[in-house]
Design goal:
Helix content: 25-40%
Number of strands: 12
Bound molecules: zinc ion
Distance between the termini: 25 Å
CATH superfamily of the largest domain: ATPase, nucleotide binding domain
Radius of gyration: 20 Å
């Protein structure tokens, strides 16, 4: 079948909502819709996913047999071998749910699941900043830090299909405790949750501190949003915390660079909000953690897919595995 006649369906599952989209292998998104997920019964949500997917197909006058493959992106942990979503802190109801089997039967189409961080790497590689390159690393820095690695033209998944947990490399064994049980992980230094907790612990007794005032009573903003404002307004506390964050990012990126010698490192979420406030110091600090030969041709960029990364991620899973048979 010619590439332009192939259609793919994607489901990007998040803790609060699910993006459903219909697209082509060239990255054209024909249609997309979002449905709520938060605290609902997974069976009910999966039925909604099927109805929504079928509606997108009907609106585009496409019969389901025209779908070449379906991709599902979801937060880990996943049982990729059995095609199941397992319980996670943001999706407590989704425990041992055989979603791949369910969706593939409903649409009679090959269906693949991948964790959302790996899917982000596929999206940047197939549709985003790293099109046609062979070596790319994607880092998503939101509540936690996740990542995916494309090495020599393949997604790195490891022996148990759980490789690429880039947020949990230990940068300092004496560092802050991480949610994963280790100490001093990259995520424990730079993840959104860790930064919120640090700012709360440092400043909660100082209601007049500029960073607390920036939040205007919205506790959800205490974290990167107020920190970035603090850095822009040259607040001393914010600048010193930012220095530490930039140093730890450079350390982690330096480690990945020396191991994989990537052409692109693409940063999402927090990096999109911070832009050059983050990129410039990280690039400056990188020679402390990686060889000059490794840095020479390396391009560090923010994600061009931005807020559409979920839709592109789900589609990229379908496109990638439609073209690369999977070992499981
Ligand atoms: Zn960890």
């Amino acid at each position: 079948m010619r590439e332009e006649t192939k259609f793919y369906l994607g489901f990007d599952i998040g803790g609060t909502k699910i993006a459903v989209c219909l697209g082509r292998a060239d990255g054209t998104i024909i249609a997309s819709e979002r449905i709520p997920n938060l605290e609902r019964n997974p069976r009910e949500v999966m039925n909604d996913m099927v109805s929504c997917g079928k509606k997108l197909l009907a609106d585009a006058s496409l019969p389901p047999q025209n779908i070449s493959a379906i991709g599902i992106g979801a937060p880990g942990p996943l049982n990729i071998i059995e095609g199941k979503i397992e319980s996670s802190p943001n999706m407590k109801n989704w425990n041992d749910i055989p979603i791949v089997d369910f969706i593939s039967k409903e649409f009679s189409a090959k269906t693949y699941i991948e964790n959302d961080a790996n899917a982000g790497a596929l999206a940047e590689w197939i549709f985003g900043a790293g099109k046609n390159c062979s070596n790319l690393i994607y880092l998503t820095m939101s509540t936690g830090i996740g990542g995916g690695i494309i090495a020599e033209g393949k997604l790195v998944r490891g022996n148990d299909l759980i490789g690429g947990e880039m947020g949990h490399i230990v940068l300092d064994p004496e560092g802050p405790a991480c949610n994963c049980g280790l100490r001093g992980c990259y995520e424990a230094f730079c993840g959104g949750r860790a930064i919120s907790q640090k700012i709360m612990a440092d400043l909660s007794q100082q209601p007049e501190h500029p960073l607390i005032r920036f939040a205007q009573g919205d506790a959800g903003k205490i974290g990167y949003p107020v920190l970035i404002e603090g850095v822009k307004s040259k607040n001393g506390y914010a600048l010193s915390l930012w220095d530490e964050i930039c140093l730890r990012n450079a350390q982690a990126i330096g480690i990945f660079t020396n191991i994989f010698n990537p052409e692109f490192i693409i940063l999402g979420t927090v990096a999109l909000a911070a832009g050059n406030l983050l990129l410039d110091p990280v690039k400056k600090l990188l020679p402390r953690f990686a060889w000059p030969q490794m840095i020479k041709n390396l391009k560090i960029k923010t994600s061009p897919l931005g807020c559409k990364i979920g839709e592109y991620s789900a589609l990229s899973i379908a496109v990638y595995y439609d073209n690369n048979s999977r070992a499981n």
